[in-house]
């Protein structure tokens, strides 16, 4: 298949989610071989079958696992090595949001949940994929979905905002660690993404101001392309009008 990412092996985490599935489809349309990573094997298998039916000749590997668990990630990487031998692009879309109590209420359950979803996978999964890129001398591209919330705190969502700020800082540190080794690591900072879950939770909002899933996919494909070869540690703001 001819396309911008033909002959590239692309991993998408959160591959069956609202944003991840859009990113997957866009990479498939550009001819990439795909690794779909999420936590539900049945949904991954269904998505992989649909991709093969829609894109003749595409190579798809679907793997279920836990992005917070090093052993689960190692099993995934073993399957990837056996099938493809390398990863050229990682699009990391895993993350989560939750409101919480004020800081003084010490809502530690929400703190732990937000850091587990938004921070730990960058160390456990993203770090492991980057190590594989280094081990195989791959000039790889990594694009991580962050959030505008990383930039400034907000009342009753301190755990979420802090976790996104930490994720952004880790992305920047990782970029500095590998930029001289031929690997680009960058982030995408959306405002509110137009997803069914966000519409359900904010029914009275003006959805036309929100960022679409295609907007996010556009940003990720750009950062994953040779057009972004000079970008390192960038937080690409994708805010729409929200």
Describe the largest sheet: 7 strands, parallel
Number of strands: 7
Question: What do the pLDDT scores average to?
Answer: 95
Question: Please, what is the CATH homologous superfamily?
Answer: NAD(P)-binding Rossmann-like Domain
- Reading side by side through the largest sheet, how are the strands ordered? 3-2-1-4-5-6-7
Per CATH, which architecture? 3-Layer(aba) Sandwich
Question: What's the SSE blueprint?
Answer:
Elements: E1 9-13, H1 18-29, E2 33-38, H2 41-54, E3 60-64, H3 70-83, E4 89-92, H4 108-118, H5 120-135, E5 141-145, H6 158-178, E6 184-190, H7 196-201, H8 213-223, E7 235-238
Parallel strand pairs: 1-2, 1-4, 2-3, 4-5, 5-6, 6-7
Helix pairs in contact: 1-8, 3-5, 4-6, 5-6
Give a structural overview.
With 242 residues, this protein is an alpha/beta fold. The chain has one domain: NAD(P)-binding Rossmann-like Domain (Rossmann fold, 3-Layer(aba) Sandwich), CATH 3.40.50. Helix content is 43%, strand content 15%. A seven-stranded parallel beta sheet has the order 3-2-1-4-5-6-7, sandwiched between helices. Helix 6 (158-178) links the parallel strand 5 and strand 6. Helix 3 runs parallel beside helix 5 (120-135) and helix 5 (120-135) packs parallel to helix 6. The radius of gyration is 17 Å and the shape is globular. The mean pLDDT is 95.
């Amino acid at each position: 298949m001819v396309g911008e990412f033909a002959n590239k092996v692309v991993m998408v985490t959160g591959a069956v989610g609202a944003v991840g599935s859009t990113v997957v489809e866009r990479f498939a349309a550009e001819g990439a071989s795909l690794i779909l990573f999420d936590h539900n094997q049945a949904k991954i298998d269904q998505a992989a079958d649909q991709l093969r039916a829609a894109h003749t000749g595409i190579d798809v590997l679907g793997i279920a696992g836990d992005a917070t668990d090093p052993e689960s990630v190692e099993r995934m990487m073993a399957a990837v090595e056996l099938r493809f031998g390398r990863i050229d692009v990682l699009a990391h879309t895993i993350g989560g949001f939750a409101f919480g109590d004020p800081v003084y209420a010490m809502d530690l359950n929400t703190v732990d949940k937000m850091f587990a979803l938004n921070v730990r996978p960058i160390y456990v999964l993203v770090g492991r994929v980057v190590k594989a890129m280094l081990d195989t001398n791959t000039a790889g591209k990594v694009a991580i979905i962050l959030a505008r919330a990383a930039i400034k705190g907000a009342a009753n969502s301190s755990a979420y905002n802090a976790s996104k700020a930490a994720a952004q800082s880790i992305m920047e540190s990782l970029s500095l660690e590998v930029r001289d080794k031929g690997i680009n690591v960058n982030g995408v900072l959306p405002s509110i993404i137009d997803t069914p879950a966000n519409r359900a939770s904010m029914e009275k909002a003006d959805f036309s101001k929100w960022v679409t899933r295609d907007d996010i996919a556009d940003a990720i494909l750009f950062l994953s392309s040779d057009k972004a070869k000079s970008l390192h540690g960038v937080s690409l703001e994708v805010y729409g009008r929200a």
